[in-house]
Amino acid sequence: MSGMFAQPFIQHAYLAGTGIGLAAGLVGYFLVLRAQVFTADALSHVAFTGALAALAAGLDARLGLFVVTIAVAVGMGALGRRGRPDDVVIGGVFAWLLGLGVFFLTLYTSTRSGGDGSASASVLFGSVFGLSAGRALVTALIAVAVSLIVLAIARPLLFASLDETVAAARGVPVRLLGLGFLVLVGVTAAEATQVVGALLILGLLAAPAGAAARLTTRPLWAMGLSAGIALASVWLGLWASYALSPAPPSFTILAVATLAYAGAAAYDRLRRRRGLPAVAEPAS
């Protein structure tokens, strides 16, 4: 272990991965609670398209990642009722952006890289072990900022997620919260692309949150569990990738997250068979 952490690329990976894991766990909890997991799936493909559009234009992939992903997230929220896009909106955007991604991939490989697909592969599957110290620090800071914003708006967002009609009647800015939350999802998706890749973002957002939802109904407990499981998935996944080289870190991270969800589901089922509540009941 000491030899592993003496490697600079491991230090950079853990720095960026810790921030991303925390943000993904917190944002993912509200994605599951608000039944917006399909939205995250669509935005993961938007991240792919945005990065390739920037590469095709000769720009930094991160510029396309953030600009396009956040813009589409806001656009989908604006088309939805009270900042919540429905499946028709998401499906239409999903298909259109995926088609654009294929177009930009063809354009990039034919005009910018002479057929070299290494950059596009990094977008699809992540390249956390290739982050520089500066890039890892920026990634971690952005992810921590997202996490702090989620914690700051957690109470009204929880109210709006559980009963948006009553929340709106009580003066909660439901639509603004919905749009703001989608921006946070977009930023998280863009950042997580560097760690697990555009194709696997959904797993890091959904699996830890789904596991937490199986274990407790208490919102604060569930948020903490989701963030903890996501962090553990990143930490253990990075260690497993290093120890089992050449296993890619995106695979090992998602493998740990999936095992955590499977374990939570098995525990939940066992409780049901014993006649106990499937999840912990909230305190009275």
The total beta strand count reads 0
Number of helices: 13
Poorly predicted spans: 280-284
- State the CATH class of one domain: Mainly Alpha
**In one word, what is the shape?**
globular
Helicity level: over 70%
Q: Which band does the percent of strand residues land in? A: under 5%
Q: Give the radius of gyration.
A: 19 Å
Q: Tell me the CATH superfamily of one domain.
A: ABC transporter involved in vitamin B12 uptake, BtuC
- Describe the largest sheet: none
- What's the mean pLDDT score? 83
First-to-last CA distance: 45 Å
Q: What is the ordering of alpha helices and beta strands? A: HHHHHHHHHHHHH
Second-tier CATH architecture of one domain: Orthogonal Bundle
Family: Belongs to the ABC-3 integral membrane protein family.
InterPro entries: ABC_BtuC-like, ABC_TroCD
Protein name: Metal ABC transporter permease
Pfam families: ABC-3 (PF00950)
